[in-house]
C-alpha cells in the first residue's frame, strides 16, 4: 500500500492530485478540432443513429448519479435533447416507461454496483438502448452494456470518488458535444467547447494549487453541525455532490438547495451556526446568486462563496476563487474545490477519509 500511495498520505489526496492527468487521458484521441466535435468510438453509433435519439437518461448511484445530473444539463444545453438523471437504485422498482428511441447511460466507476447493473438488465428486458460510462474495463456493467465510453481515470481506491467522477463529467461533455454537432450546434460553438475541454486539466491544476487556502477555510468551519450547499441550474448538481462528499467523509450533515428555493423553507434554518457554501459561477445567474448571499448574510448565516469571478468586497465571509473555462464546462471545475473542502474538513476532524464508516467503495449487494 505504501508503494501505491507514492508518498501521498491517503488515496483520496492522491486521486484528487491525479485529476489533471486523468482528464488528459479521457480526452486523448477523442477531440476533433477540424470538425469541432468529439469521437466516441465505443458508442458504436453512426450519425444517423445519434440524430435519432429522442432523449437521454442517465442512471447511476451516489456520486455517479450526480455526475449524470451534470451530464443531463450538458446534453440539454449543447444538443437540445431532453435529458434527465435518476438514481439507478430506484429504477427497477418503479416500472419505468422505457422509450426505444431514448439513449440510456449507465454510470459506474467500478462497473460492479448491483443496483446499476439491475437497472441495465431491466432496460434490456424492455428494449431500451443502454450504454455504459464505466471506469473498470471488463467489469459486469461494461460487459452487459457492450457499448459505451470508458472513463480512463485509472484505479480509484478511496471510497469518495474524485477522479472517476471528474472523468464522468468530462465524458458527458464530449457526448453532449457529439450529439450537438450532429444536430444544430454550430461549428463555432463546438470549437468553443473543444477549447474549453482542452483547458480543463490546467484549470484543475490551478484549483489544486489553492489547497492551503481551502484547508484554512475548512478548519474554520469544521465545528459546524450542519451546512447548506447552494447552487442553481448548472451548479445545482455540483451543490448536491458537494453536500454528499461532506457527509460521506466528515460526517457533518449537509443539504443541497437551489438558491431560489431558500425562501420557500430552508431560510428558517439560517443562523450563525449554519454555514452555507454558495456556488457563484460568473454566468447569467450571477446577480441572482449575489442576492442569495445577501439574504443569508442578512439572517446572520456565514457564507463561503465558491466562484470564478470577482465578487463585491465583503460580500462573503470566505471566498474560494477558481479559474473560469467556459460557462457550460465551469461546473466541472467547481466540483474540485468542494472535494478539497470535504477532504480538509474530514482531516480537521481526524476522520479516515479513505474508509468512511458504514460505506463501501462498491456495493455489490442489494
Ligand atoms: C458506493 C460508494 C459511492 C459511489 C457509489 C457508486 O455507494 O460509496 O462513493 O459513488 O457506490 O459506485 P460506482 O462504482 O457504481 O460508481
Feature tags:
14 helices, 366 residues, five-stranded parallel sheet, alpha/beta, binds 6-O-phosphono-alpha-D-glucopyranose
Task: Walk me through the structure.
Helix content is 45%, strand content 14%. It is an alpha/beta fold and 366 residues long. Strand 3 (56-60), helix 5 and strand 4 form a beta-alpha-beta unit. It binds 6-O-phosphono-alpha-D-glucopyranose. The site of 6-O-phosphono-alpha-D-glucopyranose has 16 residues, from helix 5.
Question: What's the SSE blueprint?
Answer:
Elements: H1 2-5, H2 11-17, H3 19-27, E1 31-32, E2 37-38, H4 47-51, E3 56-60, H5 63-79, E4 83-87, H6 88-91, E5 103-108, H7 114-125, E6 129-134, H8 140-145, E7 148-150, H9 163-181, H10 187-208, H11 211-221, E8 226-230, H12 236-250, E9 253-257, E10 276-280, H13 286-298, E11 303-307, E12 318-321, H14 330-348
Parallel strand pairs: 3-4, 3-5, 5-6, 6-7, 8-9, 8-10, 10-11, 11-12
Antiparallel strand pairs: 1-2
Helix pairs in contact: 3-9, 3-10, 5-9, 5-12, 9-10, 10-14, 11-14, 12-14
Amino acid at each position: 500500500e505504501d508503494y501505491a500511495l507514492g508518498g501521498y498520505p491517503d488515496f483520496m489526496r492522491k486521486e484528487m492530485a491525479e485529476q489533471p492527468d486523468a482528464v488528459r487521458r479521457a480526452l486523448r484521441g477523442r477531440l476533433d478540432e477540424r470538425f469541432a466535435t468529439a469521437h466516441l468510438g465505443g458508442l458504436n453509433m453512426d450519425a444517423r443513429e445519434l440524430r435519432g435519439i429522442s432523449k437521454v437518461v442517465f442512471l447511476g448511484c451516489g456520486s455517479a448519479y450526480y455526475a449524470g445530473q451534470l451530464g443531463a444539463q450538458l446534453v440539454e444545453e449543447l444538443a437540445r435533447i431532453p435529458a434527465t438523471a435518476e438514481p439507478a437504485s430506484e429504477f427497477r422498482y418503479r416500472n419505468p416507461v422505457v422509450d426505444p428511441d431514448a439513449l440510456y447511460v449507465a454510470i459506474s466507476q467500478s462497473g460492479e454496483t448491483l443496483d446499476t447493473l439491475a437497472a441495465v438488465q431491466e432496460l434490456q428486458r424492455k428494449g431500451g438502448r443502454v450504454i455504459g460510462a464505466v471506469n473498470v474495463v471488463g467489469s459486469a456493467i461494461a460487459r452487459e452494456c457492450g457499448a459505451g465510453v470508458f472513463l480512463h481515470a485509472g484505479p480509484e481506491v478511496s471510497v469518495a470518488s474524485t477522479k472517476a467522477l471528474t472523468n464522468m463529467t468530462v465524458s458527458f461533455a464530449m457526448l453532449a458535444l457529439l450529439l450537438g454537432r450532429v444536430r444544430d450546434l454550430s461549428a463555432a460553438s463546438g470549437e468553443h467547447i473543444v477549447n474549453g475541454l482542452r483547458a480543463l486539466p490546467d484549470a484543475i491544476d490551478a484549483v489544486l494549487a489553492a489547497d492551503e487556502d481551502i484547508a484554512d477555510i475548512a478548519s474554520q468551519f469544521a465545528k459546524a453541525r450542519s451546512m447548506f450547499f447552494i447552487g442553481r441550474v448548472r451548479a445545482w448538481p455540483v451543490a448536491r455532490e458537494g453536500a454528499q462528499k461532506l457527509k460521506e467523509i466528515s460526517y457533518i450533515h449537509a443539504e443541497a438547495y437551489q438558491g431560489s428555493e431558500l425562501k420557500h423553507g430552508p431560510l428558517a434554518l439560517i443562523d450563525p451556526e449554519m454555514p452555507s457554501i454558495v456556488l457563484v459561477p460568473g454566468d447569467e445567474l450571477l446577480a441572482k446568486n449575489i442576492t442569495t448571499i445577501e439574504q443569508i448574510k442578512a439572517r446572520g448565516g456565514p457564507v463561503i462563496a465558491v466562484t470564478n469571478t470577482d465578487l463585491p468586497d465583503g460580500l462573503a465571509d470566505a471566498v474560494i476563487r477558481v479559474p473560469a473555462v467556459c460557462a457550460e464546462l465551469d461546473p466541472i471545475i467547481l466540483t474540485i474545490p468542494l472535494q478539497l473542502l470535504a477532504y480538509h474538513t474530514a482531516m480537521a476532524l481526524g476522520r479516515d477519509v479513505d474508509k468512511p464508516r458504514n460505506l463501501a467503495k462498491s456495493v455489490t449487494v442489494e
